[in-house]
TrEMBL record:
Protein source organism: Lutispora thermophila DSM 19022
Top-level lineage group: Bacteria
Record-level Gene Ontology MF annotations: oxidoreductase activity
Taxonomic lineage from the root: Bacteria, Bacillati, Bacillota, Clostridia, Lutisporales
A Pfam cross-reference name: FMN_red
Domain NADPH-dependent FMN reductase-like: 1-149
InterPro entries with a match to the protein in the record: Flavoprotein-like_sf (IPR029039), FMN_Rdtase-like_dom (IPR005025), ISF_SsuE-like (IPR051796)
Key words of the record: Flavoprotein, FMN
Name listed for the protein in its UniProt record: Multimeric flavodoxin WrbA
Transmembrane region(s): none
UniProt cross-references to PANTHER family, sorted A to Z: IRON-SULFUR FLAVOPROTEIN MJ1083, NAD(P)H-DEPENDENT FMN-CONTAINING OXIDOREDUCTASE YWQN-RELATED
Length: 191
């Protein structure tokens, strides 16, 4: 079994990467194959609206990490996506990834695959719930399933890189999110 963990933060070792890594721990423990796809070190160019994908099923943009990502999405059994709140939205880097995924919309690569969402912002009510909705909307638009953490997706409040390491409750909730995705995957496999 294989999971892909995507972080939308441009900041390496920031709070989102820490939480995504924490959510991936249960997968390592269960022997899953894990891919960390962190946009702090990957390049996804924005969609240019040429609509080539609508005509040919392939994207006209070359020279970035989208080809690798598509093969990972095709081969994964589950996903985790996290993003900081940027202006009460996902980051531009993650939005570019969502837009570029238009190329796979007719191939149902994510259909029935369970996915979890993580949002981090400095503010209380800083847009984390919107970020969770936007990630869940990506899942639903792609035919993937939204897996809850303790209640919704994981919403966290942190600012400086590493702030989240002081919040054991949020780190534990990240692991719960990972464990829930594994449970959903096992239910899907049994059915
Ligand atoms: C351009 C920009 C916009 C931001 N907008 C928001 C926001 O709307 N709401 C919020 O709570 N925090 C906002 N923040 C703070 C980040 O979400 C916060 O620092 C977060 O911990 C960054 O995550 P990271 O460490 O994974 O990069 C913003 C930060 C930047 C740089």
């Amino acid at each position: 079994m294989k999971v892909i963990g995507i972080s939308g933060s441009p900041r390496k070792d920031g709070n989102t990467e820490i939480l995504v890594k924490e959510a991936l721990k249960p997968f390592y423990e269960k022997g899953w194959e894990v891919t960390e796809f962190f946009l702090s070190s990957k390049s996804i160019k924005p969609c240019i609206g040429c609509e080539t994908c609508n005509e040919t099923g392939t994207c006209a943009i070359e020279g970035d990490d989208m080809g690798f990502l598509i093969s990972e999405l095709e081969n994964c059994d589950a996903l985790i996506i996290g993003s900081p709140a940027y202006y009460r939205n996902v980051t531009a880097q993650l939005k570019a990834l969502f837009d570029r995924s238009f190329v796979i919309k007719n191939r149902n690569l994510l259909a029935g695959k369970p996915g979890g969402a993580i949002a981090v912002g400095r503010g209380e009510g800083g847009g984390q719930s919107l970020v969770l909705s936007i990630i869940h909307n990506f899942y639903l638009s792609s035919g993937a399933l939204c897996v809850p953490c303790e209640i919704n997706g994981l919403s966290a409040r942190a600012d400086k890189p590493g702030d989240i390491l002081k919040q054991e409750k949020r780190l534990r909730q990240a692991r719960v999110l990972g464990e829930n995705i594994i449970k959903y995957s096992e239910m899907i496999c049994r059915s």
